[in-house]
Amino acid sequence: MAKEANLAKTLSTESLYGTEDMKFSRRNLIVAATAFAATSSSAARAISSALPERGRGASLVLPNVGSKTGPNAGSIAPVSPAALPPVPAPFQPEGIRAELFDAAMKALDRHDRRVKRDRIGVVDFSASSSQPRFHLVDLDNRKITSLPVAHGSGSDPGHTGWLQRFSNRPGSNASSEGAYLTADYYYGGHGRSQRLVGLDDTNSNALERAIVIHGAWYAEPNMIGAHGKLGRSQGCLAVGDSLLGRAFDHLGEGRMIYAAKMA
Question: What pTM did the predictor assign?
Answer without folding.
Answer: 0.68
